[in-house]
Specification:
Elements (H helix, E strand, L loop, with lengths): L2 H17 L3 H5 L2 E9 L9 H13 L3 E15 L2 E14 L2 E16 L2 E11 L4
Parallel strand pairs: 1-5
Antiparallel strand pairs: 2-3, 3-4, 4-5
Length: about 130
């Protein structure tokens, strides 16, 4: 399988784990030193552990992912790094209320051995144009 297809598969695995609300499988898609920049937070998360801790707090407060669909994907290979950009339509539940989110996301993958792991994720609001 060529590297572009490998990155697309790694991204599909990550999105599927997220959409399935499968915490262990989702976080296994990230390197331990991964960083996260989400428009919903006042500051970046500087490690996978920081995100896992926040995720656990969200779940304790009733958070769950109900669905997530990726579209308009693009992959740019940069040596041992790959930049994956896509649009994401997500349905979540917070406490008892469902929300639909339309966002744009960039995930940077790094080749580690034979596996592409996400090492940075940047999530932003999709434009209203």
């Amino acid at each position: 399988m060529d590297q572009t297809l490998q990155v697309r598969q790694a991204a599909a695995d990550l999105v599927d784990a997220f959409a399935s609300n499968d915490t262990a499988r989702y976080f296994a898609c990230f390197s331990e030193d991964a960083t996260f920049l989400f428009h919903t937070l006042p500051h970046p998360l500087l490690s996978r552990r920081a995100y896992e801790d926040l995720w656990a707090q969200w779940q304790a407060d009733g958070f769950a992912v109900l669905d997530c669909a990726s579209s308009n994907a693009h992959v740019s290979l940069q040596g041992d790094l790959a930049i994956f950009m896509h649009d994401v339509a997500t349905r979540i539940r917070v406490a008892e209320q469902e929300q639909a989110l339309n966002e744009r996301e960039t995930i940077v993958f790094r080749l580690q051995g034979e596996r592409w792991l996400a090492c940075h994720e940047h999530l932003s609001v999709a434009s209203c144009a």
